[in-house]
Amino acid sequence: MFDLFLQDARRWVTPGQVSTAPLSLRQLLALLFRHLPLRAMLWFRFGSWCKQRGIPFLPGYVQRRLYRRYGLEIVVGADIGGGLYIAHPVGTVISPQRIGRNCTIVAAVTIGMRNEWEFPVIGDEVFIGAGARVLGGITIGDRARIGANAVVTRDVPAGATVVGIPARVVKVAETEVKASEVASFKLS
Ligand SMILES: CC(C)(COP(=O)(O)OP(=O)(O)OC[C@H]1O[C@@H](n2cnc3c(N)ncnc32)[C@H](O)[C@@H]1OP(=O)(O)O)[C@@H](O)C(=O)NCCC(=O)NCCS
What we know:
With 188 residues, the chain is of the alpha/beta class. The chain folds into two domains: 1-77, no CATH class; 95-188, UDP N-Acetylglucosamine Acyltransferase, domain 1 (3 Solenoid), CATH 2.160.10.10. The protein contains five helices and 14 strands. The chain has helices spanning 2-10, 25-34, 36-52, 58-70, 179-182; strands at residues 72-74, 85-88, 92-94, 98-99, 104-107, 110-112, 121-122, 127-128, 133-135, 139-140, 145-146, 151-152, 160-163, 168-172. Strand 13 (160-163) and strand 14 (168-172) form a beta hairpin. Helix 1 (2-10) runs antiparallel to helix 3 (36-52) and helix 3 packs antiparallel against helix 4. The longest helix has 17 residues, at 36-52. The protein starts with a helix and ends in a 6-residue tail after the last helix.
């Protein structure tokens, strides 16, 4: 739990960036004092730790506390890799099947089900802009970027940038993506 939280904290050394430098206790406390979203992550990691160990009541308490105090609805115990950076937690809903390492969620994002009881799988280092909605049992590839206010209801290939409603690919990192993977998207 603490290791995952340390990875979360490193995202705040330079906000939004991935830092690998070790953090002293003093630096960690300073980051916690300065950045309210990081405090939310500490509660999330603690609640998830309690849930994994089958500790009763605390995970539910933590989930409600995150909602009341930080405006963040996140499923405590969800499979979320270290280094999650939520810039502005208020109004953000995070209910994934899985989120990889070092992902960025800017503000007022919804990650959750669409019509069926299926939830998104999000890769590593994915960027999700303000107001975006990522819905259903879809897969977002590593290093994909989702534009502000996009509504994503289909798979996004690794390294692609998608924008709009419904989201469409506007850029692809050619090195990462086979043409066949993007064929189902309309490239502008
Ligand atoms: C998606 C994003 C990451 C792409 O950035 P980029 O790689 O620099 O892409 P560009 O700005 O070159 O945009 C590429 C095209 O997509 C369009 N586009 C970019 N973001 C868009 C968005 N959110 N919605 C609709 N269209 C968008 C651009 O107008 C451009 O279209 P054009 O080629 O017809 O001119 C960025 O635009 C974005 O949405 N960032 C989110 C920032 C955020 O959440 N800020 C909130 C701070 S609190």
